[in-house]
């Protein structure tokens, strides 16, 4: 299997990075210069407000919008700063839970997560706090913050609050896990600092891990110095740009080529690879072709496909993706796909193909939150379990945290996916002013009925002498042809004249009614 990374940096306004496997788009990352990207940045902030009802603090961290810090994201170091003993806090919470077993975790309204003191005992307005942005703000919500700081290197992650060493859960080989832990213990990291070996650290030598450890320690010293010297609110550490970040997090020995079409981006990537990943430096190529890079690899059509509601499956059938405010609904349709065996086998094979495409579309569209998958019903329990396991396997390559539940009694597979950034659809599109995001508009008949109701209201006004109506030309045509008698009756029963003006350059639901008295004064209709 040929795996390539394509970096489209020819336009300074937007950088796009695609991961393709055998010519098929598998991952897509975009970043625009016009959009603020705070995830991963570390700030020294100041508490501006405490909300006891939701156990959260709002923190000014210097970007113009206050961040949201929930009690579940406050690490125990702040207990000591508030004069509390973390072990005593945990012991008291456990006693309270035994007395009241109905207490739940952080999702239970305003209740505190277990083993956490009230947030008002930890902070007061004006307190300084070191925070990291873990999720971009969505809509009117500010960014989500955490005091659990993590700074990624190439093979290690520095986590000051952890205080110990560990290995990524995605490295499943027990022999390799023990080897990596032994290397970390031999390197003797400073007490009080924690380090986790990333998935990319599997198979790496002591020298490579030592070099990454030294880099992270140098960076941490710089951060500590800035924390002590600069007053809040201020930025302490900013994540690398999307090119360096993606190369650092994704590139492994299975990448056959990295192709960049912008010279400044190429030179930046080349310098980074020489310093941090010299083994992969030879894979970097500068694209000099005449055709745009993504057109050359036929990716523009695949990217356009990402924004469509219906996605066809290679084997037949399709999936339909609908995004709502609260969740994402994905429906699987068999279409014309059939097998000679049975309806059960047909459903199973379509579902397996759909599970693979669902995992791919979730990555490409960067969908997050609650996702409900409505697969084709299957009677055999064996097939249901096999589908669940297949979906979990397909989701393993996703870097966002996911949780997949078992098939519900209604045949649905519910899952959650970590939401870090605004998904691709909201980044690329804005709500349609014609339909307000519904995806449909009223028919000319429906609009005509609305118009008649408003004219009936205007006819009841004793001072109304004229009514001028401005609507879309299709609505005007319907009124003049299908509702002519109704309009004549309104004019004869009342004392007003009705004039309908059709316009082409307005929305299908445009409705503008202007009522005037006998002196030409504008009248306001009751609402």
Write the layout of secondary structure elements.
Layout: E1 3-8, E2 14-21, E3 24-32, E4 42-51, E5 56-60, E6 67-70, H1 77-81, H2 86-99, H3 119-122, E7 128-135, E8 144-146, E9 151-152, E10 156-159, E11 165-167, H4 174-187, E12 194-197, H5 206-229, E13 234-237, H6 242-250, E14 257-260, H7 263-276, E15 284-286, H8 293-296, H9 300-306, E16 310-312, E17 318-323, E18 327-333, H10 343-365, E19 369-374, H11 381-395, E20 402-404, E21 412-417, H12 424-428, H13 444-459, E22 466-472, H14 473-482, H15 484-493, E23 497-503, E24 511-516, E25 522-523
Parallel strand pairs: 1-14, 11-12, 14-15, 18-19, 22-23
Antiparallel strand pairs: 1-2, 2-3, 4-5, 4-7, 4-13, 5-6, 7-8, 9-10, 10-12, 16-17, 17-18, 19-21, 20-21, 22-24, 24-25
């Amino acid at each position: 299997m040929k795996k390539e990374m394509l970096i489209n940096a020819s336009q300074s306004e937007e950088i796009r990075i695609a991961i393709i496997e055998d010519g098929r788009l598998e991952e897509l990352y975009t970043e625009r210069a016009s959009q603020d990207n705070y995830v991963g940045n570390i700030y020294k902030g100041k508490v501006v407000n405490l909300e006891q009802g939701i156990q959260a603090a709002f923190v000014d961290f210097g970007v113009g919008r206050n961040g949201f810090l929930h009690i579940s994201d406050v690490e125990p170091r702040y207990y000591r700063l508030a004069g509390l003993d973390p072990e005593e806090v945990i012991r008291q919470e456990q006693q309270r839970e035994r007395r009241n077993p109905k207490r739940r975790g952080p999702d239970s309204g305003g209740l505190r997560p277990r083993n956490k003191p009230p947030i008002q005992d930890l902070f007061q307005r004006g307190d300084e706090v070191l925070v990291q942005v873990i999720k971009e703000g969505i809509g009117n919500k500010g960014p989500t913050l955490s005091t659990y700081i993590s700074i990624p290197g190439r093979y290690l992650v520095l986590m000051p609050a952890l205080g110990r060493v560990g290995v990524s859960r995605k490295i499943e080989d027990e022999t390799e896990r023990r080897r990596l832990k032994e290397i970390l213990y031999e390197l003797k990291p400073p007490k009080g600092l924690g380090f986790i070996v990333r998935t990319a650290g599997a198979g790496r030598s002591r020298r490579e891990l030592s070099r990454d450890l030294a880099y992270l320690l140098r960076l941490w010293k710089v951060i500590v110095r800035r924390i002590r010297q600069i007053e809040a609110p201020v930025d302490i550490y900013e994540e690398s740009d999307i090119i360096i970040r993606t190369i650092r997090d994704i590139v492994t020995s299975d990448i056959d080529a990295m192709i960049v079409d912008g010279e400044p981006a190429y030179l930046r990537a080349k310098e980074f690879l020489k310093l941090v990943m010299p083994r992969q430096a030879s894979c970097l190529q500068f694209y000099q072709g005449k055709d745009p890079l993504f057109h050359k690899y036929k990716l523009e059509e695949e990217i356009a496909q990402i924004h469509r509601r219906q996605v066809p499956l290679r084997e037949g059938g399709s999936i339909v993706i609908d995004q709502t405010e609260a969740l994402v609904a994905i429906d699987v349709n068999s279409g014309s796909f059939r097998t000679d065996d049975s309806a059960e086998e047909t459903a199973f094979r379509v579902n397996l193909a759909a599970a693979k495409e669902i995992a791919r579309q979730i990555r490409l569209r960067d969908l997050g939150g609650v996702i409900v998958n409505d697969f084709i019903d299957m009677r055999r329990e064996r097939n249901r379990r096999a589908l669940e396991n297949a979906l979990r396997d397909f989701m393993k390559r996703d870097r966002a945290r996911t949780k997949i539940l078992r098939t519900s009694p209604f045949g649905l597979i519910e899952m959650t996916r970590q939401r870090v950034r605004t998904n691709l659809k909201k980044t690329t599109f804005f709500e349609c002013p014609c339909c307000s995001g519904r995806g449909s508009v009223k028919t000319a008949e429906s609009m005509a009925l609305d118009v008649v109701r408003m004219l009936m209201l205007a006819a009841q006004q004793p001072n109304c002498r004229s009514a001028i109506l401005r609507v879309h030309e299709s609505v005007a045509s319907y009124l003049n042809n299908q509702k002519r008698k109704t309009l004549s009756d309104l004019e004869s029963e009342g004392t007003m004249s009705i004039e309908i003006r059709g316009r082409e350059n307005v929305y299908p639901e445009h409705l503008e009614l202007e009522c005037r008295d006998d002196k030409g004064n504008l009248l306001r209709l009751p609402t």
